[in-house]
Design goal:
seven-stranded mixed β-sheet, 7 strands, PNPLA_dom
């Protein structure tokens, strides 16, 4: 069978500016890079990029989406109490409506997509919380979901934004959606591809050089949730740890057919640190894509 090419995009809040800039940089070098992709997978901010590309948005448009102006717009107003999310999602929802409209469904997209989220309440006959993997493969039960509902469901980061229709950020289960994409693409009831035909480029939002420089043996809820460095450490541990683990598993499954692109950040960047966007764009501009370019030439562009 023909190659089945997947690009996956991690979650990471405003660090999606780095991802979008890397995508544009690669596509400037190889104008058919995006066109050759059969499937896009994305979590949280990565969902915006995956859905945008599947909807036909140009890489330049995605870079513009991650502007300082939009970041300031989304992460405002800020609440400072413990009884509600740090931000409401009004501005984010308005911005996404401008990009995607309100009626576009994932079944209408030209490419396959997969976007993780997590349902925190029972649904139908299911009484327990459960993961949700929105996708538009024939046979999926999620094809009628609108793009904007999928995007808001996958990016509803706990403590940052309110849940959306009782769904929260997909980063709690698959901040790096590469493994989920492989599973869906090879599922005989969904993608039906053979694993030896899968080629996957996984693009992160930058490796945060975090560590907890304290003795955590006596930590309780307060420290794990509110320690300032790293911010909200339990959430950071879950998202970054999951991303690294899924990168390892994906490489073990695909071998040379898998490539990870995730530059190290020179300093920590929080999910809502929109003032760091220029730094992220500059990092993408200066980053050496040599190994990624070699992989693309050997495995993607033929």
């Amino acid at each position: 069978m023909a190659k089945f090419r997947i690009i996956s995009f991690d979650g990471g809040g405003i660090r999606g500016a780095l991802t979008a800039s890397l995508v544009k940089k690669i596509n400037d070098l190889f104008p058919d890079f995006i066109d050759k992709a059969d499937m896009f997978a994305g979590t949280s901010t990565g969902a915006f990029i995956a859905l945008g590309l599947a909807a036909g948005l140009k890489a330049e448009k995605l870079v513009d989406l991650y502007s300082v102006k939009n970041g300031r717009y989304i992460f405002n107003p800020r609440y400072c109490d413990l009884y509600r999310p740090k931000y409401n999602n009004y501005h984010l929802k308005k911005l996404l409506k401008e990009v995607f409209g309100t009626e576009l469904k994932i079944k209408d997209l030209d490419r396959f997509v997969l976007v993780p989220s997590f349902r925190v309440n029972g649904y139908g006959s299911t009484l327990f919380w459960s993961p949700v993997f929105f996708n538009n493969f024939m046979g999926s039960g999620t094809t009628d979901a609108t793009v904007i509902d999928v995007a808001l469901s996958s990016s509803a980061a706990p403590t940052y934004f309110p849940s959306y229709e009782n769904r929260i950020d997909g980063g709690v289960i698959a901040n790096n959606p590469s493994m989920a994409a492989i599973a869906a693409a090879t599922d005989r009831y969904l993608g039906g591809r053979k694993i030896e035909d899968i080629y996957l480029l996984s693009i992160g939002t930058g490796f945060n050089c975090y560590g907890i420089n304290y003795n955590t043996a006596g930590w309780g809820k307060l420290q794990w949730l509110l320690c300032p460095s790293p911010p909200a450490p339990i959430i950071t541990v879950i998202t970054d740890g999951v991303s690294d683990a899924y990168a390892l598993f994906s490489h073990q499954m695909l071998g040379y057919r898998y490539k990870r692109l995730n530059p190290a950040l020179s300093r920590p960047v929080g999910l809502d640190s929109y003032n760091k966007i220029p730094m992220l764009v500059e990092l993408a501009h200066n980053y050496d894509l040599g190994p990624t370019i070699a992989w693309l030439k050997n495995n993607w562009l033929d």
